[in-house]
Amino acid sequence: MSLTDPVADMLTRIRNACSAGHRRVDIPVSKVKIEVARLLRDNHYIVDYKLLDDGAHGVLRLYLKYHNELPVIRELRRVSTPGLRRYVKCRELPRVKNGLGMAIVSTPKGLMTDREARSANLGGELLAVVW
Predict the structure, then answer these.
(1) Pair 13, 28: CB distance under 8 Å
(2) In terms of CATH architecture, what is 76-130?
(3) I want to staple 63 with a disulfide (CB 3.0 to 4.6 A). Which of 2, 47, 50, 69 is the partner?
(4) Where in the chain is the domain with CATH 3.30.1490.10?
C-alpha cells in the first residue's frame, strides 16, 4: 500500500491510540518520523520512542504519555499537506495556544519546534501543531 502523506498517517495513528487509551503505538519508520518523535519526546508529549526491526522494514514504537488517565496530547493536527504546502517566514511562525503548544517546522537545518526556529531566525514548512 502506498501512502501519499506518511507524516499525516503517523499523526493519525498517535491521535487514534491516545483516544483509545493505548500506552504505545507502532508506526512504520522513516527519518522524518524519527525526528518528529524526537521533538515530541524532548517537549514531553510522549514518554519515549524505540526503533524496532521487524524483518524487511523497521518499526518506530512510541510510548504515549498520560496525566491523570488523560492523554498529554490534546490535539495533533497536520498543517502542510502534499496538496497544499504551507511555508512560513520566521516572523509568521504561529504561537500555538499562546505558547503552551508547539509547531513542528521543517527548516534548512532540520526539523525543529517553532521556538527553536524563532530563536535561530529560520522559517520553513509548517508540518504540524501539537497541544
Answers:
(1) no
(2) 2-Layer Sandwich (3.30)
(3) 47
(4) 76-130
